[in-house]
Design goal:
Elements lengths: L11 E2 L4 E2 L1 E7 L10 H17 L3 E8 L2 E8 L5 H19 L1 H5 L13 E5 L4 H9 L6
Antiparallel strand pairs: 1-2, 3-5, 3-6, 4-5
Length: 142
């Protein structure tokens, strides 16, 4: 009896694409101020989950400390990562500033919540050395 094939839930299919894209993102508030409390982190996660859902992406993991947040996002290839980042930061900044105005004003001034920079790394795939070896093994004599 042959083993039963189990589909990988991380692999998604589209009309003309099969994909499994994950990004590890790190955002810091302006001036790397320690603005986050447990309540603000919880609300930030809720808002970012909603943004991802609307973009047909999935926020797989979220966590943070007083001065930064980490996200693991599973997203389709039709989404430009920089556009998703802009939406995540823009929408979350709007709601957090509105809902926690008194607290945030103690740490941040002006109209900005997030630093304009961010960290992004691909995640969830095989190590580069394994991919390189696999591709090298695909050579065939001509």
């Amino acid at each position: 009896m042959s083993p039963r094939w189990e589909p990988n839930p991380d692999i998604r299919t589209g009309r003309s694409v099969i994909h499994m894209l994950h990004a590890h993102l790190v955002f810091v508030p302006k001036y790397r101020r320690g603005v986050f409390t447990d309540d603000i982190l919880t609300r930030c996660e809720e808002v970012m989950r909603e943004v991802c859902e609307k973009a047909n992406a999935e926020l797989r993991e979220f966590n943070g400390e007083r001065d930064h947040v980490h996200l693991l996002v599973h997203y389709p290839p039709q989404i430009k990562l920089s556009t998703l980042v802009g939406s995540l930061k823009g929408v979350s900044a709007h709601y957090l500033r509105k809902e926690y105005a008194d607290h945030i004003r103690k740490y941040l001034w002006g109209a900005h919540f997030w630093s304009p920079s961010y960290f992004a790394a691909s995640a969830g795939g095989a190590p580069l050395s394994v991919v390189k070896e696999y591709i090298e093994q695909q050579k065939r004599p001509l």
